[in-house]
Design brief:
four-stranded antiparallel beta sheet; extended; 7 helices; alpha+beta; 252 residues; six-stranded mixed beta sheet; 2 domains; Immunoglobulin-like
């Protein structure tokens, strides 16, 4: 079925010299109470009006999926008199809540630094710090910390060489979405490169939304905080009473 969809994409619409057309297995993800992650299949085709220009170098594909941007406050701790205390704090202006990169080959080999900067490809380009307090000695350490922490949490992922490109025409890959996704609009972008330059880009949207009980809790907490507080207090009191009764019965 995927091959048939790829062929239909290849035949549809006008083409450039080499133009990438992509699609996703799903354009929406529902976060429910038992949500433990999902997986997106990304597939596409390369449309041409003439034979591929082999002299320009091999063809490669880069696929990125990026979640909503956030502002993140990062604090640096130092040990003073045997106690760890916060010393410096920097607000990182732009940090995607989720960022995945998959490629046909090592990223540095298939796209130049200039093109990465132009298209904001890579963790170092996605996490940006516009300004930092003058007293902070190494502001880049804070952006690196955001990347490192989110990589450890499975929110930033880079997998080189897992995009399957068939006869320089059809490509497929899969991207795992973790359980700790943030609600919002995600962007899937497919880049076609030759000679380490981007020659075509295709983009699709993915909507991530809470559903069911998760949606009810989220809406109540943000739109009716007073009611949410009362319900939370009632649940906590009931849980405490239930635990107390259970221990009393076990002692008999």
């Amino acid at each position: 079925m995927i091959r048939a969809l790829l062929i239909s994409l290849l035949l549809a619409g006008p083409a450039l010299a080499e133009d990438v057309v992509g699609a996703l297995s799903q354009n929406s993800v529902s976060i429910t109470a038992n949500f433990n992650g999902s997986e997106i299949w990304v597939f596409g085709a390369v449309k041409r009006e003439e034979p591929a220009p082999q002299s320009a170098g091999p063809l490669h594909v880069i696929v990125t999926i990026r979640g909503p941007d956030e502002r993140v406050t990062v604090r640096k701790k130092e040990r003073t008199l045997g106690i760890w205390v916060n010393r410096d704090a920097v607000e990182v202006d732009v940090a995607p809540s989720f960022y995945a990169i998959t490629t046909t080959a090592p990223l540095e080999e298939i796209i130049s630094a200039t093109e990465r900067l132009r298209h904001r490809i890579g963790f170092d380009q996605a996490v940006r710090l516009v300004g930092a307090p003058v007293e902070v000695a190494s502001p880049r350490d804070f952006t690196a910390a955001v990347t490192r922490i989110r990589q450890d949490n499975g929110l930033y992922v880079q997998k080189d060489g897992i995009v399957d490109l068939t006869q320089d025409t059809l490509f497929t890959t899969r991207v795992a979405l973790p359980a700790n996704l943030v609600e919002g609009s995600y962007r899937a972008r497919m880049f076609l490169t030759r000679g380490r330059k981007v020659i075509s880009v295709s983009e699709e949207a993915i909507e991530v939304r809470k559903e069911g009980l998760e949606r009810l809790i989220y809406t109540t907490a943000h739109e009716r905080p007073f009611l949410y507080g009362i319900i939370s207090l009632a649940v906590a009191l009931f849980a405490g009473w239930a635990a107390s009764e259970a221990f009393r019965l076990l002692r008999r």
